[in-house]
Write a structure and sequence with these properties.
alpha/beta; four-stranded mixed sheet; 5 helices; 9 strands; about 20% strand
Length: about 180
């Protein structure tokens, strides 16, 4: 998605401009025209795990977050693997450092949780790593949420056109879910 992986290609201004064009001419008008009041982002808001440059941080704020705030959009963002500094934990992440406490309209999810929208329970599953794997799998098994959304690497699923993930968790853990939205890393 153009609204993910801010800072991609070495913080390319060209890619920032492509994202802004998409946001201004397609995404935000669609939200307005369809009277959409909630956005759920499935992770990897930023591209680099170790750092973000000031221009990229500025573009995320000006091009994406500020318009969402202006429009009054209830925004939910899950932590993705690119958002995390360490590979084995979601504890230190870009969302916490750049967004938490600065925007009242954004809710950040770094661990698996059931969230309810208009009476519909949805299980949010941020990036699964060594630190949260057992707890996450237990919550997936225990939930009665009809929908599961997450930032996942599922074995056997197409990540990009023609590229199938050969590694990752088995999708059978979700077999009892009626609907699953997937965003592979």
């Amino acid at each position: 998605l153009p609204i993910s992986h801010w800072g991609v290609r070495g913080d390319s201004v060209f890619f920032h401009d492509l994202s802004k064009d998409f946001l201004d001419n397609i995404f935000f008008p669609y939200l307005k025209n369809e009277n959409i009041k909630t956005v759920i982002h499935l992770g990897d808001l930023v591209d680099r795990r170790k750092y973000i440059n000031f221009n990229t941080s500025n573009r995320v704020r000006k091009d994406f977050l500020a318009p969402l705030e202006y429009m009054g959009i209830d925004t939910h963002i899950m932590v993705g693997n690119h958002d995390c500094f360490y590979k084995n934990t979601n504890e230190i992440n870009a969302l916490r450092e750049l967004i938490a406490g600065k925007y009242n309209f954004i809710k950040i999810y770094s661990s698996t949780i059931e969230v309810e929208f208009d009476g519909l329970k949805i299980l949010f599953v941020p990036w699964i790593c060594e630190d949260n794997e057992e707890e996450t799998f237990n919550k997936i098994k225990a939930t009665n949420a009809q929908i599961c959304m997450g930032h996942l690497e599922l074995a056997g699923f197409q990540m990009y056109k023609g590229i199938v993930a050969s590694e990752g968790i088995s999708p059978t853990i979700f077999k009892d879910r009626k609907s699953t939205r997937l965003n592979s890393s």
